[in-house]
Amino acid sequence: MPFKHHASRRHKFAKSKHRVTNWPEYNESMRQRGDVTVWVDESVAHNWGVAHTGKRGRPGTYSDLAITACLELRIVFHLALRQTQGFLRSVFRLMKLELDVPDFTTLSRRAGGLEPLPRVRSETPVSLDLVLDSTGLKVFGAGEWLETKHGKTSKRRSWRKLHLGLDLETGQIECSELTTDDIGDPSTVPNLLDQIDEPVHRFLADGAYDGAATRTEMAPSEGLCVGLL
After folding, report:
1. N or C end of the chain, less CB within 10 A?
2. Alpha carbon distance 51, 56 (integer Å)
């Protein structure tokens, strides 16, 4: 191929780079991608701002309900943060609502402090394909700083083990358990399964969960497929 023939001399040519210089126009074009029509309930509009608490300092502009509504629309329509801002602006313009829309930086900053929404479960029980695995978490303390700053040997670091059970179809975390490193993996299986309301059709885990506690929990189940890798 021609491009392979000149590959040894490609380093002589500077690679072109595209840099955005008109950020206001670029941001506005990204917002316009989410300009569609949808309706907003009056209860959301009435609670869009933050009520005055009488405390010192500048009060917040947007309530948690406003941020949650924006983020929910973002998830439903698979929008970026700037597109979400344009989406809400078009909705308020069509409804003739004098409400300010949170900026995309505000949505990103406030999203971390919101409580997770409760999961809506189906009334009819659905079988679940559960995948279980664990990962180690190292607990940092003053010893890490001493070792980096002064080169001193720190004390033995403590570890925690996080067990997570995920739905194979949706990727939703169904159960979780945090234990110390001296707790065996099979002993956490009963507590993890107690957190799940749906019947488990298939249980997948690595060989570390193969133990007496796991076999006891899986033995009385009918129609259950167990896979230990």
Report:
1. N
2. 14
